[in-house]
Amino acid sequence: MDLGNLPLSPLIALLAGVLILVMPRLLNYIVAIYLIVVGLLGLFPQLAN
């Protein structure tokens, strides 16, 4: 199994979903970090490369 070809977004979503199920208090932090990362990538697209 080659992890180099897997898209990153579904893996992050899966990991976040499992963490939220295990520790529901993490929901606020996970959502906040996701929004910050998406916002930064939207403002500075060169960071995605």
Description:
This protein has 49 residues and is an all-alpha fold. It has two helices and no strands. The longest helix is centred in the last third of the chain and has 17 residues. It is flat.
How is the topology of this model organized?
Blueprint: H1 8-22, H2 27-43
Poorly predicted runs of 5 or more residues: none
Number of helices: 2
Alpha carbon gap, first and last residue: 24 Å
Q: How many runs of DSSP E, i.e. beta strands?
A: 0
- Class from secondary-structure proportions: mainly alpha
- Oligomeric state, counting identical vs distinct chains: single chain
| Proportion in helices | 55-70%
User: Largest beta sheet, briefly?
Assistant: none
> For the residues shown, what is the average pLDDT?
81
N-to-C series of helices and strands: HH
Q: Per DSSP, what share of the residues sits in E-state strands of 2 or more residues?
A: under 5%
- If you compute it from the alpha carbons, what radius of gyration comes out, rounded to the nearest whole angstrom? 13 Å
Shape: flat
In short:
65% of the residues lie in helices and 0% in strands. The chain has helices at 8-22, 27-43.
